[in-house]
Amino acid sequence: MILRQAVTADPVFEFAAEVQDGLLRTRQKELPSKYLYDEVGSALFEVISALPEYGLTRADQRLLRENASEIVARLTSPVLVAELGSGSGKKTRYLLEALDNRQQTRYCPIEISHAALTMVARELGDIEHISIVGFEREYLDGLLEVADNRRAGEQLLVLFLGSTIGNLDRPADVKFLRAVRRIMQPGDALLLGTDLIKPIPQMLDAYDDSLGVTGAFNLNLLARINRELGGNFALSQFKHEARFNPETRSIEMHLRSARNQNISITRAGLTVTFHEGETIWTESSHKYSRPELLQLAMAASFRCEAQWVDDEWPFAESLLVAE
Ligand code: AVJ
User: Fold this and answer.
1) What distance in angstroms lies between residue 279's CA and the mean position of ligand 1's atoms?
2) pLDDT at 9
3) Which of 42, 45, 83, 205 is the best mutation target for the ligand 1 pocket, counting ligand atoms within 8 Å of the beta carbon and taking the most?
């Protein structure tokens, strides 16, 4: 794999600035969910994906495995593939192998997680007619660079899988898709994976598993602040919590302070006061309905060319074509 490394002058400074911004909020403290995925967090998410309660990743994978050739048949050759947030790359294999049968294809995973890019290179490096160029970038910055590199006649296929879009608030999801669309040309395609709404107890179990892996995944954000920014969070003094917010139709992860406490974070130049019972909001995971998905696509100037839904775990793969 060729790797375009991060260009940010100082990633620690950016992390510190965002932590400061989020923890100084007066009403609801928050931390950006993208920081859940350091090396430990990425490994914990791999474990979450294997848990019986969390069917999301398996549904995504099943849909891609079973429908890869049908998806690829709807594209025009040659294809330039850009993936926003590749994760381990495991499920992308099905699509790349289906494309591999047709011709030489360039695959560009875009990730802020260096650990994830390394995993992708290991996972997908062996597919014969695929050349990999990894971009250690924020999604839109990376996508702009990939689009700049497109060759004449190439169709751009953007992959946004695993319901990562669910981590954006409404209407930030429409805004984000519009920004993606502006980088694309008419006829380019976006394959969008989204988790669908299901009974509340099932959704809550998926984010509060009996082994406590999701709890560890959530708490690792505080452990990461301790490691990288010199924080002094006592992990035993914060409790993982998953709730369903019916207004936004999202599962929210929070960390609840077990008592009144002050936390200092040296490299963010910060002391924060927590009251007993106060929470830090660390992630939202929106659950879509199918009509909502069509509206979202239209609002961002895409038409839905085809959609595949898993029958075991409601999850949709939508092939959207830029108009
Ligand atoms: C990787 C963003 C799809 O929102 O379900 C898993 C992350 N958080 N368990 C999700 C996650 C808690 C996951 N995504």
Assistant:
1) 19
2) 64
3) 45
Ligand 1 center to 317 CA (angstroms):
16
**Selection from 70, 58, 56, 62 nearest residue 307 by Cα:** 70
Q: Which H or E element spans position 303?
A: strand 302-309
Cβ partners under 8 Å of residue 94, min gap 6 = 61, 64, 65, 68
Given a cut of 90, whether residue 281 has pLDDT beyond it is yes
The residues lining ligand 1, judged by C-beta closer than 6 Å to any ligand atom, are 48, 56, 162-164, 166-167, 207, 214, 217, 283, 285
DSSP code of residue 196: B
Bridge partners of residue 239, in order along the sequence: 256
pLDDT confidence of 277, banded at 50, 70, 90? very high
Q: Centre a 10 Å sphere on the Cβ of residue 103 and count the other Cβ atoms it contains.
A: 10
95-131: pLDDT as tens digits: 999 997 767 899 999 998 888 898 899 999 999 899 9
**Which atom in ligand 1 lies closest to the alpha carbon of residue 57?**
3
For the whole prediction, is pTM greater than 0.85?
yes
DSSP 26: S
Q: What is the DSSP string of 75-141?
A: S-SSEEEEEES-TT-TTHHHHHHHHHTTS-EEEEEEES-HHHHHHHHHHHTT-TTEEEEEEES-HHH
Closest residue by Cα to residue 105 from 69, 68, 77: 77
pLDDT band for 7, please (50, 70, 90 cuts).
low
Task: Name which residue sits closest to atom 9 of ligand 1, judged by CA.
Answer: 207
Shortest CA distance to 279 belongs to which of 237, 229, 232? 237
